[in-house]
Amino acid sequence: MKRVYTKIIKIILLGIVVLIILIASFFGYQDIPLDVLKAKYAPAPSSFIMVDGMDVHYRDEGEVRDSTPIVLIHGTGSSLHTFNDWTTQLIVDHRVVRMDLPGYGLTGPFPHRNYSIENYVVFIKHFLTSLGIKKCVLAGNSLGGNIAWSFTIENPDMVEKLILIDASGYPSEAMSVPLAFTMAQTPVIKNLFTFITPRFIAKSSVENVYADKTKVSKELVDRYFELTLREGNRQAFVDRFSVSPDTISYKKINSIEQKTLVLWGEQDKLIPPKMAYRFHNDLPNDTLVILNNIGHVPMEESPNQSLKPVIGFLKNN
User: Model confidence over 62-92: pLDDT tens digits?
Assistant: First the structure.
């Protein structure tokens, strides 16, 4: 009887191994060489600057005489390209600076794999200092919003105004989570994620954060997918989700004195609009704008509609 059980177990294990091999054959992807990605995603005006041991991909555009530039910070799994449409309009009157956060885009992972908000705040300070920026209007989406308000608390003298776009930071009450986020937090699967990364996961995840799925183009999915295949980014994606949730820092939000625009997609299922009202209630000096029929990434899904309140906010002294 033991021999029968042993044989069955061996057959099951062999089946699992064969299944993994088949999945890897169909959905396993090697990293895309950095020079290939740079050729496609870092044409002028892209530049690179060494910060904290990383060659950081960034763009610095617009009015060079603007001493208080607008600094844009993207969210999880994204890149500076998410602000392309906003930047095209903003640089008419402003200097606009954006970067690929460590772990995403072309910048690549943190050398010591520390993806805490605290470490991102330190990185932003070093990045701005490297560019000689002493004060800015700081804007961030999702994870970038969390970094932006955390940076403002730690470095209030460096922030003139704050723009929070579907920002994270409060305890999560997500109604729907992108497939890639779920995989990155699931035991065993998250280890496979670093080399088995089907393109449909990227497509599904982008569609998850859009209200209008028809706006998710092949080009958009290709960008998210291909930049995920930058060396180190898949492991960094998993590492970021391994960071213990911060359940304390949001209690400091009410100490932010800067004028703040809280900008939110009405159809955001990842960070629902009720969180916008939490920021609105806690911030002593804010303006709340809810955008109808838009999801989690307003600047990407509907750039013209989402930029209007931003321009008004920037003009209002």
Answer: 988 888 999 999 999 999 999 999 999 999 9
Position of tokens 């919003």? 145
Domain that holds residue 21: 1-30
Over residues 180-199, mean pLDDT: 85
- Is there a single domain that holds both residue 163 and residue 269? yes
CA-CA distance, 167 to 314, in Å (whole number)? Answer: 19
pLDDT beyond 50 at 16: no
Whether 11 and 57 share a structural domain:
no
Which strand (E) or helix (H) includes residue 130? helix 117-130
Tell whether 49 and 158 lie within a shared domain: yes
> Does residue 9 sit in the same domain as residue 152?
no
Domain total of the chain: 2
- Bridge-partner residues for 47, per DSSP? 58
Do 72 and 100 lie in one domain? The reply is: yes
Tell me if residue 109 falls in helix, strand or coil: coil
Q: What is the pLDDT of residues 110-136, one digit of tens each?
A: 999 999 999 999 999 999 999 999 999
Is residue 41 located within the same domain as residue 13? no
CA distances from 19 to 179, 199, 229, 237, 249 (A): 21, 19, 23, 25, 44
Average pLDDT, the chain: 91
Q: Which residue has the tokens 């560019």?
A: 131
